[in-house]
Amino acid sequence: MSYAAFKMMHWPTGIENCAAGFLTHSPSGAAAAAASAAAHIPPLQSDDIEAAEWPANRRIDPIPNLIVTAGNVLEVYVVRAQEDEARAPRPSGEQQCSGGFIDGLSGARLELVCSYRLHGNVECMAVLSVGVDNRSNRRDSIVLAFRDAKITVLEYDDSIHGLRSSSMHCFEGPDWQYLKRGRESFARGPVVKADPLGRCSGALIYGLQMIILKAAQAGQNLVGDDEPASAGGTSSIRIESSYVINLRDLDMNHVKDFTFVHGYIEPVMIILQEREPTWAGRISWKHHTCVISALSISTTLKQHPMIWSAANLPHDAYKLLAVPSPIGGVLVICANSIHYHSQSASCSLGLNGFASQPDGSPEMPKSKFPVELDAANATWLLHDVAMFSSKAGEILLLTLVYDGRVVQRLDLMKSKASVLTSDVTTIGSSFFFLGSRLGDSLLVQYSCGTSTSTSSHVKDKVGDIEGDAPLAKRLRRMSSDALQDISSVEELSLYTTVPNSSESVQKTFSFVVRDSLINVGPLKDFSYGFRINADPNATGISKQSNYELVCCSGHGKNGALCVLQQSIRPELITEVELPGCKGIWTVYHKSSRGHGTDTSKIMAEDDEYHAYLIISLETRTMVLETADDLGEVTETVDYYVQGSTIAAGNLFGRRRVVQIFARGARILDGSYMTQELNFGTHNSEPATNLESPLVASVSIADPYVLLKMTDGSVQMLVGDPSTCTVSLSVPAIFSNSTESVSACTLYHDEGPEPWLRKTSTDAWLSTGTSEAIDGNDGSLHDHGDIYCLICYENGKLEIFDVPAFKNVFSVDNFISGKSHLVDTYIQDSNGTSQDVMKRTSEETKSPIKKEPTQDMKLVELAMQKWSGQYSRPYLFGILNDGTMLCYHAYFYEGLENAQKGGGAVSPHSCTNVSSISTSRLRNLRFGRVSVDISTREETSNNFSRPRITVFKNVGGYQGLFLSGSRPAWFMLCRERLRVHPQLCDGSIVAFTVLHNVNCNHGLIYVTSQGYLKICQLPSICNYDNYWPVQKIPLMGTPHQVTYYAEKNLYPIILSVPVIRPLNQVLSSLVDQEMGHQPDNESINSDDMQKTYCIDEFEVRIMEPEKSGGHWETKATIAMQTSENALTVRIVTLYNTTTKENDTLMAIGTAYVQGEDVAARGRVLLYTFVKNAEISQNLVSEVYSKELKGAVSALAALQGHLLIASGPKITLHRWTGSELNGVAFYDAPLHVVSLNIVKNFILFGDIHKSIYFLNWKEQGAQLSLLAKDFGSLDCYATEFLIDGSTLSLVVSDADKNIQIFYYAPKMLESWKGQKLLPRAEFHAGAHVTKFLRLQMLCTSSDRTNTAPVSEKTNRFALLFSTLDGSIGCIAPLDELTYRRLQALQRKLVDVVPHVCGLNPRSFRQFHSNGKAHRPGPDNMVDLELLSHYEMLPLEEQLEIAHQTGTTRSQILSNFSDLSLGTSFL
């Protein structure tokens, strides 16, 4: 293998940075929206609220967006607060308090606005905001910092419904080299902070260079940025200019943190620095070394005078927290104390016994309980209450006791325990978000009351909400992290003195968890094992879904096992053989008696059972009753059963069933036919009836049925709800049109407030349109509007409203897959379509032969809006080459509409606009969404079965199912489509939902082998993740997992933090050999009573339960005190006594006793008891031996046991009772990983890179073949096998991956001593484990020889990272590599990269200042190549042509690669 592909399969989930800001709306806009929502309250409740004073006692302030970053993923969420519908009038005593926020809110959830995968890891993030106090209509901007010194400012753009860069600032390269002052590596990346009033922002780069980014004044736009602000006049803050302050000139040495403070006229920056650094050995003499300095930043004069400073701060100060107005000042957070400083006053609080004062200063007040605050995160809940999240996951509340003039003292209170955080932020005035890399991130609502009576009322109320809300239940089921700690409502009292009153008022806080974002990181290790419901007979790709990944993730109390499956495997209830099936449908039957009770009908609609299952075979149709059991009733019903059915569904509020077949339709009431229609009879000569077109595809939207005929014409069945009959009509607009229709569908815009109606410019007319649809009985009121979507053969898409068939939206060349769809009418009036026209005309002119685009056409179209108060419709299209286009609709009021305000009122007042255009949906836009899906199947031109089936509730999820050769589930979670393939049954021809007594919200599908399967979705998995995941909480840190296939067991190394008395801990550190006693005299007796937290290790053997869900601990092997288990492996050793193989579990350990004691370790061998039912124990120890050095890695080598203990590798023979050494090799420092193929050994050293050894049986020696002479801190190693080529892969501490090879005949390998580099690549995350898995053979391999064995001798490496991402490295043949590399080079320039980041510089080897000779670049980046499919079709063809290949060739390479690496 000389070439490889790098592919991410699961993106990072561990959240590192989070912030809140008004991106998608401005504070004033949100307030106005809240006020207008208040006006819509039914009159019943609005009696006791006067409209004028409504905003004053609004329950909840405008809620900003939440922005999170995880690795290289940037996501923006909006917090959707759900108001409690039946809210009681508020008690009058509560109105002066800062809001009983939990009142009036029954829940809140996060909804995705946009998500981006960047070509670089976000180091730091800040939000540039005007400040919330002034209800401004300015929006906030995001400032992101990337290594080494790149800063990008992003703003939200309504017109594209996403983020765009407003400015980029790069301080790298030769021009800025002098800023580094000769240094090459820096301890941390850039840090950005923003001024609280948005006047400027600061970025600390290269340790001591401060960049000041000056914000433009309101109303000034950037040069050349001539486009005016979007409608409504909201604009985001933008950066105007920047300059550099060299902090070294201000006598600063070691800057630890900086921040901007509140309450000054000019921006004031406070810098925390260490004048003269100290170290552990000097602490007793030199301990107060930190200083803070306040600089007043004048951005116009570029001056920065120091206005005040404070010295003598503890050496362990590490963070500054600016105190909000009106108090002002700054908190300095140290590990053992907190200090408050402002220009006029200061005070401090000691947190534990280590807090010390500088000599000669007064005694420091102590907190009531000891706590350590190093590595804590903080945010403000109120202007005088800060919340800290400590390293142990406790939530602490710090109150600044303020008398209106100065801060008198600091009070610290304990609150709940929660998740271990990496960042926290307050969202508005009633939510905060705990972002975590180590556990699930939580959205928490908090409320602060003042009087005890109110707070108890709040407490009861929230308790009830917690009990009823299904969301909270689902959260508790999903999230294994310490939700139970924080979700019970916590009361917390803080005594604060109120200005101008002597008595103290009690502040009570209550918390309730509202939502959680799942996280599977950090993945320390994983194992590849069988699923519970695996199918032993499966072959090929369906065999892959027999497996799952069991991963060690999390830390401490957030530790968990994550079971990840790339593909969904439904739980089978029953299956029957049913060959030749073409389609299946389930229908409801509601007798007309239920018509009167309108409200109850809607309530129970979701839980209504299905009545009939209709199965269409090639020549006939079967009908089954779906009562308690499925019974065939084909003979007794009036359904059309003589031929196959095209479609079936319900009409008239589920009172009738409509069945469509090739030549006609039937309307049935239950099993009785009430009407039959024949198509094609309206022709003038009856003789042509035989040749009349047949029905090709059908779309049903109550009370309409749209039929597409085989000749490309369209017909429509229009229902009359009063008589429950339908009539056939051809819409006038199509009866005389010559254009042939390639795909069409009906879209039902449901709900009391139809979404599409809002996008029409004559929204005030919307009342009229709903009456046009009403039936005589009025039952269809509030059921929304119906639209018809038609895509013609020439690629044009049009949307008509039904039944008037007025064209309301049209897009030319829909099939090209542009990134945004806009109504062509708007484009023409705006002049934006000129460049599009120009580009297409150029392409037609070029005489060079390209792929023909004429044969591209749309074969299927669907549009759907799922339930949800804020959900927006999705539009799906499938092209005949298998491409799936997916668009999400959004609302954008363009400028031309805002300016011609009159156009909305009277159609005649606008110029150049014909009066027809007023009813167009001109505020409707569609944005393309990328779906990671590898279903490419060419469909034949004549006729294909519909592949999209929409479901409203399968196991509590909604979305659509895509059938075909690689079926997939699209699930809508948080307004984001999650795509999960289903590989276990191969190709699926038909799918439908089934809800009856025995199968609750389940599904039926038919495989191409002819099996009909009735299933349910596994409920233990959470599908709101890149892969379906199930978390098993362990309440400890998992370190390593391995799999014992014979008994389906998982041995796991686990460490649990326990608290021990200090004397017990000290006595365990005694050196047993020397017999030294620690000198306890120097430690006084009360210190000996203290406790200390240590990790206790054990090996836990767990078994997944058959029913799923809970995992059972089968056995536990405890380690000795201060002994850490480092590795556990299942090894097969050749027993020299019995001459047969033994399968044993080997454990390697190390004693951790400090640097004064010589390192020791143990190797333990356990055997699994044959009949565990008889004996109590599952495992029994057969061997144990203490070795010098830590036993850090174990492996079985041809029946021998290879042990890495300290700097030595020894090979042992197993006699059945003991291990005898036969060979050894001296490693440099400490072995971190061992891999074996045949008799070759690869090991990685902690600092000295990788070594390649060989074991010779006859001479019994381990000999070095070659090594890498560079220095490298190895993380993980593995062999990569491609046919007969062996490569060596290593990942390192700088987040790189390198591939080496052994070539002794090459000159530059120094006679074979040196391993040669084959490829190097920057992965952007710490890779902790590689697993070698055999790739599946794909179509391109099959063409050479007809009978091919199932597997090829080609392996890929699956890897996991500390960010929670999973990817693979797959070998490529040279031809594919050259093709994809040429494409990659092209895409670097063609694709507009988010934040302006260059993918090439991101993927270059990062040596972090060490000497490194650049190696070959033989790895392609599929993260970048995946953008190819998102380009418009014309650009795809053009780029393929420029790189000398074809689009179909590139796409088949992509799908081969994704097929070959579908491991799960």
Highlighted features:
1464 residues, 22 helices, mainly beta, globular
Strand order of the largest sheet: 86-87-88-1-89
Number of strands: 89
Approximate strand percentage: 35-45%
Q: What number is the mean pLDDT?
A: 82
Helical fraction equals: 10-25%
User: How far is the first residue's CA from the last residue's CA?
Assistant: 24 Å
Broad structural category: mainly beta
Number of helices: 22
What summary fits the major beta sheet?
A: 5 strands, mixed
Report a brief summary of the structure.
About 10% of the residues lie in helices and about 45% in strands.
Describe what you observe in this structure.
By secondary structure, the chain is mostly beta strands. The protein is 12% helix and 43% strand. It has 22 helices and 89 strands. A five-stranded mixed sheet has the order 86-87-88-1-89. A five-stranded antiparallel sheet has the order 28-29-30-32-31. Strands 53-57-56-55-54 form a five-stranded antiparallel sheet. A hairpin with a 4-residue loop joins strand 70 (1123-1135) and strand 71. It is globular, with a radius of gyration of 34 Å. It starts with a strand and ends with a helix. About 13% of the residues have low confidence.
